[in-house]
Structures are given as C-alpha cells and as structure tokens.
C-alpha cells in the first residue's frame, strides 16, 4: 500500500482504531536505540497528573530513530484536556523508501486515540514530513481534528500560534532538494549518534547528542535557528498574538524573542521533549533526560529504613 493510501486508510477509519491498527505493518527486530534508560525506569505515578495542554512534535513515526516507547510512557503519565501534535508526527518522506513500523509506533497511535476516546481533544497540526495529510486539513473525527495551524488560548489568557514551522524555513519552502539532502545528512548524524551512545552506555556513560552538539557549535546551524526564531516571532507580531508554539528544528526551547514568547517542543528523536501547560496557564519544558536525573536524585535522597528484629 502506498504511503498516501495507508495514511488515508488510518485517518478515515480511526474511530475503529482498535481493529484497524492491528493490520498496520510491523518490522522484525529490536526497537531503535537512543536514550540509555528504558521507559520502565521512569516510575509510574500512582495517578495520572492532570494538566491542561500537552504539545509534542517531530516524533517521526516510521523511522528507526523515533523514540516511540518513551513517548508512550510520557503520554501515560498525564490526563490532558488537549493534546497538540505539532507536525512531523508521521515521517512520510522516509516511508517513501520503505516501511518501518514496529509495534511501539502503533502503540503511540493507540495511546493518542485512547486519550481522545476518554475526552482529550487531539489537534494534529501538519508538518513538512507529513505534508501528505494537508489535503485532509479541517477534517474532524470525534475529538480529533486535523489542521495546518491553530491559535491556543492559555488558562491565563495568552494567545499562542501553534504551527509546525516549516513555513518559515526558506530551504524547505524554496529549495526542496536541499531540504531532502539536509534530511539525509541529519539521518546519517542520527545513525552515528545511535552507535556512539550504544558504546557510551556500554561503558557506563550517559546519553549525549552529537547532532545537538553540532547545532550549538556549528556557526551556520546556530544562525539558522536564530533566523527561524526571528521569522516566526515576526509573524506573531503581525497577527497580534502573544507567542508561538512550534517544532521543526528539533531544538527545544522557551524564551522571549522581542515581544513574543517563543516555545519550541523539540522532538522525540533526540531530546525526547515536550511542552506542558499546567492548570494555571504556566508552561513547562519537559525533557526526558532531565526527568530521569531528577528521579535518580530523589531516589538517592530517600532515607534508608533499617528493619528491626
């Protein structure tokens, strides 16, 4: 089945997901490598944490570098009123060259559909890697809506543009062959990153992102990120909005760009990061690695109770 036909099949019949998703293609083998800790190592809370909104982007389901198991574990921890999927959730570019879809990727889709069935509003914002879904924009299936962009109003009244961000990437918009070339180079970096962290974990070292390091150190990459942030912030000013939530560049961040609040979800390929709006409207940047370190530190501080005979 072609990628577009497969996507159409899933979208138009998602209300019967528990039957249809069992027929999605699977690949043999172990899940892709990545962060050294397993999802099970993040202890499950006694009850789900109630939050107002979750934003996740750049999951890239259908690729070997997608950290699907970690994302499923993250979603299980929260009861959210609304979930925004801020683009590049499914990687249509990669799936053109062959289907890779292990059970963990199906589990992410099932988790999101289960959340929607239980009352969570799920808004799927399309990105450039899942641009084939843009022809379904404004489609509504129960609590699931497909859009190219949205405006979110926080609990404290801030109006935020929610958009993937590829619209503000000059290379993606006007030089698609360069975008594909850059994507291939990035994929190669991720492959090196996977092998590097395999050996680091083997010798007791923590996770380290090669591509994130290169983004911070290479002048052109730093300049690209800065230009992207400035362009998207300028659009918010034009529209009279207070801020923007986006993805696309795989660089999680919360900061002010001029008058605009800039919030980037990051990704679930390297950083495993997301944005969380709490019930009072405050927005937190979640990083899986930070959560793991905090849990480890808390465990070390727990008092040792000696048994008395």
Account of the 3D structure:
By secondary structure, the protein is of the alpha/beta class. The protein has one domain (3-26, 45-288): 4-Layer Sandwich (Purple Acid Phosphatase, chain A, domain 2). Helix content is 38%, strand content 20%. The protein contains 10 helices and 12 strands. The strands form 2 sheets. The chain has a 7-stranded mixed β-sheet. A 5-stranded mixed β-sheet has the order 6-7-8-10-9, with helices on one face. Helix 3 (68-76) runs parallel beside helix 5 (103-117) and helix 8 crosses helix 9. The longest helix has 27 residues, at 176-202. Residues 10-15, 17-37, 172-182, 218-222 and 304-309 have low confidence and may be disordered.
Secondary structure elements and pairings:
Layout: H1 3-12, H2 17-20, E1 49-56, H3 68-76, E2 78-86, H4 92-95, H5 103-117, E3 121-125, E4 140-141, E5 144-147, E6 149-153, E7 159-163, H6 170-174, H7 176-202, H8 210-217, H9 219-239, E8 243-246, E9 253-257, E10 260-264, E11 273-277, E12 283-287, H10 288-301
Parallel strand pairs: 1-2, 2-3, 3-5, 7-8, 8-10
Antiparallel strand pairs: 1-11, 4-5, 6-7, 9-10, 11-12
The counted number of beta strands is 12
Structural class based on helices, strands and sheet pairing: alpha/beta
What is the makeup of the main sheet? 7 strands, mixed
CATH superfamily heading? Metallo-dependent phosphatases
Using the alpha-carbon principal axes, give the shape.
globular
Q: List low-confidence stretches.
A: 10-15, 17-37, 172-182, 218-222, 304-309
Helix content class: 25-40%
Please count the helical segments.
10
What order do the helices and strands follow?
A: HHEHEHHEEEEEHHHHEEEEEH
**Any idea what the CATH architecture is?**
4-Layer Sandwich
Q: What is the CATH domain class?
A: Alpha Beta
Placed side by side, the strands forming the largest sheet appear as: 4-5-3-2-1-11-12
GO molecular function: metal ion binding; UDP-2,3-diacylglucosamine hydrolase activity
Pfam families: Metallophos (PF00149)
Protein name: Ser/Thr protein phosphatase protein
InterPro entries: Calcineurin-like_PHP, LpxH-like, Metallo-depent_PP-like
């Amino acid at each position: 089945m072609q990628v577009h036909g497969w996507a159409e099949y899933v979208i138009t019949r998602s209300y019967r997901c528990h039957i249809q998703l069992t027929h999605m293609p699977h690949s043999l083998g172990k899940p892709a490598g990545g962060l050294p800790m397993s999802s099970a190592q993040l202890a499950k809370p006694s009850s789900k944490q109630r939050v107002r909104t979750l934003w996740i982007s750049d999951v890239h389901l259908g690729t070997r570098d997608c950290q699907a198991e970690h994302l499923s574990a993250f979603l299980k921890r929260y009861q959210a009123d609304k979930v925004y999927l801020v683009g590049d959730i499914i990687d249509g570019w990669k799936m053109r060259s062959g289907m890779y879809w292990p059970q963990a990727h199906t589990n992410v889709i099932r988790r999101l559909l289960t959340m929607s069935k239980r009352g969570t509003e799920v808004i799927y914002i399309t990105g450039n890697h899942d641009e084939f879904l843009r022809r379904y924009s404004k489609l509504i299936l129960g609590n699931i809506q497909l859009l190219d962009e949205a405006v979110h109003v926080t609990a404290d009244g801030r109006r935020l543009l929610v958009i993937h961000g590829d619209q503000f990437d000059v290379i993606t918009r006007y030089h698609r062959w360069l975008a594909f070339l850059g994507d291939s180079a990035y994929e190669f970096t991720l492959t090196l990153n996977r092998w590097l962290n395999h050996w680091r974990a083997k010798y007791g070292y923590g996770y380290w992102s090669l591509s994130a390091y290169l983004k911070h150190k290479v002048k052109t990459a730093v300049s690209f990120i800065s230009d992207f942030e400035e362009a998207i912030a300028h659009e918010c000013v034009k529209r009279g909005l207070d801020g923007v939530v986006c993805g696309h560049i795989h660089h999680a961040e919360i900061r002010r760009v001029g008058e605009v609040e800039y919030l980037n979800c990051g990704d679930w390929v390297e950083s495993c990061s997301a944005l969380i709006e709490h019930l009072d409207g405050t927005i937190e940047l979640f990083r899986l690695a930070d959560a793991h370190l905090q849990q480890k530190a808390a465990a070390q501080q727990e008092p040792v109770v000696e048994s008395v005979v």
